[in-house]
Amino acid sequence: MILNILQIIITVALIGVILLQMQGSGLSSAFGGGGEMYRSKQSIEKVLIFATVVLSVLFGVLSIILLIPQ
Predict the structure, then answer these.
(1) Which residue range(s) make up the domain with 12?
(2) Is the pLDDT higher at 39 or at 5?
(3) Cystine design at 55: which of 12, 14, 26, 27 (Cβ 3.0–4.6 Å)?
(4) Is residue 6 part of a domain?
(5) Using CB atoms within 10 A of its CB, is residue 11 exposed (0-12), middle (13-18) or buried (19+)?
(6) Per the confidence metrics, is the pTM higher than 0.85?
(7) Is 30 among the domain residues?
(8) CA distances, 70 to each of 56, 65, 66 (Å)
(9) How far apart (Å, rounded) are the C-alpha atoms in residues 12 and 32?
(10) CA 54 to chain centroid
(11) Tens digits of per-residue pLDDT, 6-62?
């Protein structure tokens, strides 16, 4: 039961992180910036990519664990 809830939370977080990375609608337009802070935007994108990888791995591992009959 706890693993099911954890998987739902990870899934929602993964969807949110992926939507924040969409091409053409980067974070600068979401927060009203015009791209003046190129370095900070680039570092935020790196964090989003890292979060996507971590959440994807967690989602995959949880999915495999939930397949095991208990």
Answers:
(1) 2-19+35-67
(2) 5
(3) 14
(4) yes
(5) middle
(6) no
(7) no
(8) 24, 10, 9
(9) 25
(10) 8
(11) 999 999 999 999 999 886 555 555 555 555 555 566 788 899 999 999 999 999 999
